[in-house]
Amino acid sequence: MAGSSLVLPMVLWGHQAPSHCISCLLLLPPGPSVLSGCQDGQLCLWDLAPGPQIQPRALLFGHSSSITCLAKASASQDLQYVVSASESGEMCLWDVDDGRCIEFTKLACTHTGIQFYPIPGGSQGRLLCHGHYPEILVLDAASLEVLYSLVSKIAPDWISAMTILPSQRTQGDTVVAVSVTGILKVWIMGSEEGRMQDAGEEESKPIHCQQCRSISLCPSAPHSLLVVCSQYWRVLDAGDYSVLCSVSSGKQVWSGGEFLDPDTVIVWNEDGNCFIYKLPASCLPASASFRIDVGKAMENLIPPTLIHVVQRAEHELLICPPVTGFFSGLLESHPNLLIQGNSSGRLSLWSIPENLDQHEGIPLVASLSLQEAFDSLSPHPAGIIDQLSCIPAFPDPLRVTSSVYIPIHGSLVCGREDGSIVIVPATQTAMVQLLQGEHALRRGWPPHRTLRAHRHRITCLLYPHQVSQRFHPSFLLSGSRDSSVILWDWISGERKQQFRVHGGEVRQLLVPPETCSPRVQQCICSVASDHSVALLSLRERKCILLASRHLFPVQAIKWRPADDFLVVGCEDGSVYVWQMDTGALDRCVMGLTAVEILNACDEAVPASMDALSHPAVNLKQAMTRRSLAALKNVAHQKLQTLATNLLAPEAADKSHLPKSPPNSLSIQSLKANSSDPDIHVLFFDVEALILQLLSDEASRSRNPSSSQDPIPKASGILDKGPSFLAANRAAVLFQQVKESIKENLKEHLLDEDEDEDGSVRSRDPKSKPLESHIPMDTARLFLSCLHAWGLDPNLDRLCLERLGMLRPHCAVSFGLLSRGAHMSLMLPGYARNSIGNTAWKTSGTYGISRAVTTQHLLSIISLANTLMGMSEATFLMGQRGGWSQLAALHCVMLPDLLDPITFRPPLLEMLARRWQDRCLEVREAAQALLLAELRRMEQDGRKETIDAWAPYLPQYMDTVISPGVTPESIPMGSTSPDPIGSEARIQEEEQELVDDDIPAGKALTFLLLQPPSARLPAHSTIRRTAIDLIGRGFTVWEPHMDVSAVLLGLLELCAEADRHLGSIVPGLPLSPAADSARSARHALALIATARPPAFITTIAKEVHRHTALAANAQSQQSIHTSSLARAKGEILRVLEILIEKMPTDVVELLVEVMDIIMYCLEGSLVKKKGLQECFPAICRFYMVSYYERSHRIAVGARHGSVALYDIRTGKCQTIHGHKGPITAVAFAPDGRYLATYSNTDSHLCFWQMNTSLLGSIGMLNSAPQLRCVKTFQVPPVHPGSPGSQNSLRLARLIWTSNRNVILMAHDGKEHRFMV
């Protein structure tokens, strides 16, 4: 969902905090903050406030298994880059400050420890990883790519712990590691130049430290190593790794330790207790007795002295040992910080003083669990249907244990722990939980329906029509802990069928693939906790297969439709293959064969069409395996192939139809742990919401009565695929469902709510959730949560009273989607972070992170602009206006109204990537935001940005142009430090095709004119960006580019603009070709208005060149197919814009303009309809006149000449008779005379046309004979007011008869003349 769309998550946590069994910890100095990983795969970010105080800020989702280790991933103190690894081999690089996943990968190995190693003399770094593999992997910290390995040639084994010893020598730092068998290994980190091969160890020495937990170095005295094993801990000499002292654990199990000082260590055990020891003098390099015990037996070594014991914070029952970490020198207020996290999600902090001898104990300074943070909030964090789940006798509402969202109707189905199922309108129930208003005070609001049949909690829900449209839209299935599966008609509330085939709770409901047999296609697969799997037929209303011979829990369900096999994978690695048609167990395998069968099922799914093309192979397999269903499938394969071939043309035609937009709102339930209640995340797709609003606006304008339909037409648009409405049978089915919904609206839409005494109370029949406008309700909810309330009281009042927005109850928990569908979600109470409560009042969501600020501003500005352009854009009846003020606040005024210390400005690279977003509204918002942010940054800020981006920009960028002068050039650098997508790679690759010293103008020309290729497609985003920048900065690029080539390239893209842009369906995004044509049109208009002389003269030269080539018979074919010939209409459109906006510039080159018009207009059409009808814009000038009978056009030029065009021959004749610019020309009614007037020389001249019969009717190919028959001296006409526009309309010539003419000045004065 993240993809290229603008998707914003919003979360409803509920009263119960998510489980967070902490498995690793990391302290991040800037902030400061603590990052904790848990057994369920989430990361939690905790803010540390002065005191210290702990406040959880966000949960990061991205791993599917337990987090094994965390490490810093940047040498800069300003960047909070962290790398996390999980048991399944997943690695993620996070920008913790923004909550973004920058990079991710998955390796076929599990890391148990990671250390960051900065490269000397550079800003880059390496990640040294060890784990369940016999070497140390060296990864690039930015890309997570494996560069090389530190291998072990002597007794290779898994590495238990590792540390890096800084070297005083020039050969490099030393990597010291201990294997699981107790062998110490040493590698030298030398120069990486030319090293891309594995390196062997320098030393290998057995030290008999089995089950090593950690190895650490004293920072202030790097001569001692602390090695902590499960049963003992030892101090080693870093020189020869000899034992200096050793302490046994006794009954305890040590889990880690660190140096406090050169003579003090702190170690902790699995119970969470920490012990501080004073080392003997034999362990201190500065002491005279250093190493006196080396070589002695362990029992004869001088033992350290125990000076302090730090007890665990809370003696609560834990399911796994707590995790402890000691961090020294990272915080100024607490230089020695001991942090502990346990399985209940509790974080505890101790500050260890420097002078331990002067303190009797070490008190706990802070302790907080996630649940305590939730309980301390008022109001409590809301769940999705808390208002409908409250029970008077219990403080907490009923927990939602399973849920599914039905986007076609905007309904949310929630299964609760008491076995009931509640169906509510999603947007309305979210408004109740998040926004203030009268709706929050109504009892039982919103209107809902409750389904009751299960005796225990609901464990899973399935709406099969959303997965496959072969199922009836009214079908809903629910699985429960009571071992039953129920088929519901969720529209009427009727229970269709109850299946009781399992012996344990139903864990999962699945839909078989489309390629299964017709009988199986009408089934649902259910998986239960008793290790059984069933196929439940919805058509036959019975179980057709019960696979119940599995000995271990079911872990995977695979399908082999071609062989009619259901493949079940269990947790012990065994695989059971069942025949779906007969219900017989075909085989049970384990080991490598089981893995191959599961992999073969994965490979068979995308290759289903290949199976149909080899019937002989399938027949052989069917005969060998004696599968009856497989034999049937083979028999039907030829019919399927024939049907596919027959329907291919129809499908090809329908593929060109515009697809419906995705859902603007999607609700997904999450569980941090299987025992937790559901967390509901609302995903708002801004692009889809804009498209739905525009689609509904267009449909209302086409059919005003459609708004009266109780079932909104958006339901058809919201459908996930076009095939549902494409097939006739499916269309009929949809119409039947629609009619059934209409019939049941009044009777079944509102649930009969039970009062406390058990009586039934009917709701108000006027409240019908399906009558609500889903896109408008979604926009209302979204904008109400996004708006920066409290900054402008007048605007807040306008939003409430005129726009119909609602104020939130409290801070809304937003989130951020990043690469690979990784997500960060703000925890409730995040506003009470380390910067205090004033942060929420001054910055709100715009003080969380720069990425969140960017997405929120893009969303609210694009939506406000969309609603501003709609005719019915209000959430209240009878109110209009105000959207422009809302957009202006967030686009321009927001930084000035917020606290500059807490405000997090938008990210320029995110705005630059959306400079040519496929959604026009989002594109315009991104461009406005980027330009506003560049203006706010001023010259110094822009220069810093360019300097920061310079290493990542293509080298052909123009280094002469100042970055502060042309901020429009910023979007060209979309290859930011974190390049995303193919367009960034294209920019990097294209620099190999051009010289390094080519200025930016030629680089943009290259991107425009380069022929389409795999690296640079014809209608790619980078090409559109180049087109846009050429138009915006043409005045800067003009000296560096071939103007003629650029204009012809743009005209080539505009040649079929009318065809591409004319077929657009309102509300749907532009196709790439239409988007390129639109961008080229806009660029042409910008170029023409910025440099009218350059545009006119360039096009005129091309016209003359093409006219000359047209005389050559051999080039006729290429001439008619050239860009200039095919873009005649586009050239005329640009000339109309110039005449309208810049007539003075057009008049200066009026003859050239007329040359272009004569080329673009069809002569036969002008002769038939006249110039006034074919191109009326040019006729507004007094110095242009057209005579219909002779089909001649007279044009007065600025240098005193008159150009006479003959439409029939296409030739032009020039006459000279004035000493200054021509002010007006006019043909006599009979065409025998042409009057010309110049205000500069104050002369009025009469020209006699040829009087012969043949010449007057245009039958002579020779040029007409013109002679000046009379000249009059006229008083000059003075303009009424200064200005270029007034000088164009000083006077005009009006013939009253064939020999009489009036010179009418602009002030109404008339001068009459007669030839």
From TrEMBL:
The keyword Phosphoprotein applies. PROSITE patterns: WD_REPEATS_2, WD_REPEATS_REGION. Residues 758-771 have a biased composition (Basic and acidic residues). Keywords: Phosphoprotein. Residues 913-947 form the WDR72-like alpha-solenoid domain. Transmembrane segments: none annotated. GO terms for cellular component: cytoplasm. SMART domains: WD40 (SM00320). Residues 697-716, 746-772 are annotated as: Disordered. The keyword Phosphoprotein applies. Signal peptide: none annotated. This is WDR72-like alpha-solenoid domain-containing protein. It comes from Melopsittacus undulatus. The lineage of its organism: Eukaryota, Metazoa, Chordata, Craniata, Vertebrata.
